[in-house]
Amino acid sequence: MPAKVVVGVQWGDEGKGKIIDILASRADVVVRSQGGNNAGHTVENNGEVYKLHLIPSGILYPDTLCLIGCGVVIDPKVILEEIDGLIARGIDCENLRIDPRAHVIMPWHIEIDGLSEALRGGSEIGTTRRGIGPCYMDKAERSGLRMYDLTHPEVFAQKAKLAGELKNKLITSYYGGKALDVDQIIQEYTAYGQRLQKYVADVSVLTFEACRANKNVLFEGAQGTLLDIDMGTYPFVTSSHPLSAGVCTGTGVGPTEINEIIGVAKAYTTRVGKGPFPTELHDEMGDLIRNRGHEFGTTTGRPRRTGWFDAVILRHAVRVNGLTGLAVNKLDTLSDIGTLKICVAYKKADGTVLKDYPASLEELAQCEPVYEEVEGFTGDISACRSFDELPQACKDYIATLERVCGCPVQMVGVGPARSQNLER
Ligand code: GDP
Ligand code: IMO
Ligand code: MG
Questions:
Q1: Mutate to test the pocket of ligand 2, among 73, 117, 227 (most ligand atoms within 8 A of CB)
Q2: How far, in Å, from the CA of 273 to the mean position of ligand 2?
Q3: Widest pairwise Cα distance in the chain
Q4: Within 10 A of 202 (CB to CB), how many other CB atoms are there?
Q5: Catalytic site residue 350?
Q6: Contact 417/329 with Cβ under 8 angstroms?
Q7: Kind of pairing, strands 305-307 and 368-374?
Q8: Cα(121) to centroid of ligand 1, in Å?
Q9: Alpha-carbon distance 145 to 150, whole Å?
Q10: Is the pLDDT of residue 103 over 70?
Q11: Catalytic annotation on 28?
Q12: Strand pairing of 340-347 and 353-354?
């Protein structure tokens, strides 16, 4: 079963980076297919912590080919900083490849991200302000710049001049912002393009060839199912497809190449940014989980909102991703906090019970979680190295998750390190 997809099944930050790093020990190729540096994936190895935003989490293995597909949006400055940072720590990036079709985040995208959030007043999305939405907007509008353009100076100068001048009109006359220096940007970005040129290669071809050669290929999801632009909590979502289906369009491979789809969840729920969150805890329990789980954003440092595990979301994720298994992280965070709650359905004010995640925010706003209570567990479980070593109450909690989600749990995380992942 060589081609595996790993996707987030909540609102991101489920610990995908850790799972990819672990599975990458057996992979030949790791591929990112959507999102950009709004992602922050943490990998811990021998006490060293790596926070990756664009580079696939397989990069710590010197022989693993790390690919960035056409569906990813690339901030050239950020990826170069990431490459330089890794090289400075002794990590070789010679095995990195970026698809020429991937779109480039330009300074005007970042500027417009901030300006449009400000313009939304109290109803902002709470984006990472990395220019993600505006870059995908240009891609859909067919005026974006791609990695091919960036790495061909004459093409780039001409296209960027046109795009930059148009964006300056938008920035100044619509948003009331300050015009950017387009010529200076072209000069700066041309230099980035020259440095990035050696990494550009057709990721669709490389991925297809690896799949057909029966190599182990891992697709690394970014963000999470509820942040998907179609199946998430629209409009409080990102602008790409973090679902398993996004892997196909974002890499350029067909769905028949994929054998396994693993959904990564936390043993509870977190969210950064705005938007609905039915099981959110606004009390001391929420603070306790946030502090015990160190729930602060990898990319922006914002405190993450915390709440109980929500099986309504998980069943939605099982369906829309076609999950074959789950990895449940951060079980260790829940020890010594008393009785645990799992949301199994939503109840509306009129008494209607919803088993499936509703499409509208208005309907969701009327929903209260229906909880099933499960006995809590005590003691430090972070030293457990096999599922059998876990206290019975932990095993019962996982069994309940499997029952209410309708999906087998294949891995359980009891800490951030490679060794703290219990495979079943
Ligand atoms: P990602 O965006 O899905 O890759 O997740 P992040 O890296 O943004 O956030 C997950 C955080 O949880 C990171 O700090 C990880 O090191 C940490 N982590 C992952 N799995 C576990 C676990 O099982 N237990 C604990 N305590 N921490 C974990
Ligand atoms: P990883 O891969 C958590 C959230 C932002 C905001 C919304 C839109 O680390 O799980 P954007 O900048 O994408 O336009 O912001 O999406 N968001 C994430 N939340 N983890 C992420 O990535 C996220 N990427 C985007 O907080 O609510
Ligand atoms: Mg993250």
A1: 227
A2: 7
A3: 65
A4: 16
A5: no
A6: no
A7: unpaired
A8: 32
A9: 7
A10: yes
A11: no
A12: antiparallel
Q: How far apart are CA 35 and CA 73, in angstroms?
A: 6
406 secondary structure, DSSP code: T
Tokens coding 372? 């099933």
Is there a contact between 174 and 119 (Cβ–Cβ < 8 Å)?
A: no
Q: What is 110-143 written as a DSSP string?
A: HHHHHHHHHHTGGG-----SSSHHHHHHHHHHT-
pLDDT digits (tens, 9 = 90+) for 356-378: 999 999 999 999 999 999 999 99
* Ligand 2 pocket, residues with Cβ under 6 angstroms: 8, 11-13, 38-41, 125-128, 130, 132-133, 222-224, 227, 238-239, 272-273, 298
Peptide bond into 242 cis (omega under 30): no
Report the helix count and the strand count for the chain, using DSSP H and E: 13, 19
* d(C-alpha 200, C-alpha 136), whole Å: 20
Name the DSSP class of 90.
T
Q: Which two tokens stand for residue 416?
A: 């951030």
Query: Does any ligand 1 atom lie closer than 6 A to the CB of residue 221?
Result: no
Query: Looking at the DSSP assignment, which residues form a beta bridge with residue 218?
Result: 4, 30
- Interacting residues of 214 by C-beta distance below 8 A, sequence separation 6+: 2
- pLDDT tens per residue across span 259-283: 999 999 999 999 998 999 999 999 9
How confident is the model over 198-254, as pLDDT tens digits? 999 999 999 999 999 999 999 999 999 999 999 999 999 999 999 999 999 999 999
Q: Of 200, 199, 79, 202, which Cα lies nearest the Cα of 130?
A: 79
Pick the atom of ligand 1 nearest to 297's CA.
Answer: 8
